Model the fold of this input.
Amino acid sequence: MKRPTTMFAMSISPVWAPTTQNLVWADAHSHLQDPRLAPHLPNILDRARAAGVQLLHVAATREADWPAVAALADQHPGLVISSFGLHPWFIQDRSARWLQNLRDRLAARPAGIGEIGLDARVGDGLDVDRAAVFRAQLELSYELARPASLHCRDAWGAMLEILLALPPHPAGILIHAYSGPPEALPALAQKNVHISFGGTLTRPKNVRARDNAARAPAGHFLLESDAPDLPPTLPAGVAPHLTGADGKPLSEPGNIPWIGHHLAEIRGTSAGDIAAQTTATARRLFHNMLT
Done:
């Protein structure tokens, strides 16, 4: 995800491949509370449903957006599930009571913890603080047995050291937009860690993503939109539904079948198989968040 800018919408034909229609999909990671999407949320959700997306996981990023994330889950029961936490980009915005506030929020609803994690590229001198905030939230996810949704960028050594030293997670962990080493995937799976693939999987030059997609253990991979960020490369001649103020595409859950089509090609299987696998994995991972 990135910091919000304004955007406008474009209405065009569906972007998903014909072979993925009439299937059931799950979006394992999104930020539908993002201000860039708010004016167009009804259309975004309509397109998601039309694409067969029947489960949408919305992850918070800071205390200020927790109410909006909760409202989305309340307004769309059976479709939207929620997670609350502090994203590593926004730890400087936290209140003195942030951890107790997170506990209170989780006590009030069957939600997960996220988006949390490590990011060595921020460059604000708060890496030690950032690591402490991450560890506190990860420990809370173990204590409460809630699924945790993780972000990691340029900090894979530290992230893997932490995760592989812990016992298997009682509820499960999701590392979104996984770009770590493929060699770590079997060991992560043993720790009940899952990974998800988004729009970057459709980029032909993203060799690491394709390698990870090919080697991810069965039952431990999912699909994500990361809406509104990390949009997929669309088929030739197809324009995005949403673009930002800079004219660049924005991602949305309706893109999930198109991403799934690419994952199917990489793994040498059908879109139907990928839809069934990833949706079943999402429902298993998030089972205690479903109402």
In short: Confidence is low (pLDDT under 50) at residues 2-14.
